[in-house]
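Re: folding output
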Amino acid sequence: MVLKILTKWMVKMLLTPLKISKIKNMKLSFLDSLQGLLLMEYSCVMPEDRIKTGSEVILQTMLNNTDKAFDRLESYLSTNVLRIPEHVLLPEDAIHETPHTIDEMQKLETDIQELKQRLQKAKKVNACLQKELKEQDVVKMELEKFISQLKMLKNLSRETGVFNWKENLVYSTGKAAVLVDSIKTLAGKS
């Protein structure tokens, strides 16, 4: 009976895809069924707690052995299967195939420094342009406000019938000056 359960469990384990959690779950289910079977058949010969402790020891031993087996499998795979041979050059490593001379390295360093300086200059120019753009936005808002006031004056001149504001302002200024003079003379007489 125990042999039958063990063979079923082994067949089931071999036929399912390899996943560690599945293996652990299958071991647990196997040991649970084995423990139940041993409790049914041998509970009169051996105490129940001893059977449970023995099955826990078996489970721990199986888990340790599985961990060791997977460690060995991982080691084998990393050294033999997933290793890139020395004579193979990956496309992303092709740049390292030929070593650079000292002059080439110095030229690269100077190019990097020049590019850094150009980047800093570009950032400064960009900041100045952003500042100027903000100033232009302020001027644009003021111009829009002035245009709206001019439209309002045009509408007002249409409504009042006064179309020549310059002559009107000169005439009004002249009248105001005459009034100021007459007020001064009246103030001087009294």
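--- second protein (sequence, then structure) ---
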Amino acid sequence: MADKLWGIFCHSSSQGGRGPVTVMMEGELLSTREQVFTEISGLSLNPDLRSVSSAEMDPVLSSKPRFHFDLWLCFTIQNWILDVGQPVAMILLPAGWLPLNRPSISDYLHFLFAVSAPLLLLKMLERSPRKLPRLAIHLSIISVVMGTSFHLVADSITRRLLLIGYQLHLPVRENPLMQELRPPSLVDIFELLFYLDDSLGHLMWYVPLFLILFLFFSGAFCHRKQEEKIPPAGWMLLAPSTAYYWFLITEGQTFILFIFTVFAMTATVMHQRRRGLVPDSNGLFMLYSFYGALVLVAVWVAYLWNDAVLRRKHPGLIYVPQPRAVYTLHLQNKKT
């Protein structure tokens, strides 16, 4: 039977005609072509499928942007009460309330800050449209916890040194308190202490912080048609947020990290504008806070530019005096 069919097909082909097998094959090809065309047409005309594909291509823009007031409010309250409140409590509260060999009020605030800061950063990562790999998140949080722990121990000892005459506006070896230590090699131990506080601890805490802030900002964009403004509640938080970043730069000595973050944010805005995207309300809030803090730092540096004593502690091109050093130099003696 197969031989007969093959003979009929060959005979038809040799005669230029259309045998039954040829007709059958052409029919299958036509039906397959029509099925593919129908599927392609349905894909191009179905708005649901187009929206899914666009959401997969650009997940940052798949949801309508909204201002995260609760997140920024918690961030502001934590920073002002638990971080800025530490030196304020040391200055305002009497030193004799608690013995020197027990944690002070400032230390308890620092305890709470070391716990709440990683939790808030995790919440910010959850809200961010841009996602980090799980390993990077774990390493960032571990670094933050270790950095705040170094900072906690070193700051606790520094506060007690201030109570017995240590002067923050002077380098470690030039402090009269350190010059009286015996044996003199003990000064090396205190230099290690301040290294763990001002250098290593600050890097382990502030590098992940600015990276997470920049990651959150890089996803805070929307289409020009969806352009938003900062709500009134956001304007209320803008001033304390700006002032806190000023405190973070000056007291934490993070000017280099901060200025690189500002440059990266500005470059991101310029790049996204070419794609037709603009910062949403969260992005504008962060931009205004960072730019405002930069202005405050410039005013602060200009006001103290000719202070010869502070320049001995901050030699070199980058000169950003610490507020606590200014307090011990210019205000502490007037208070006493």
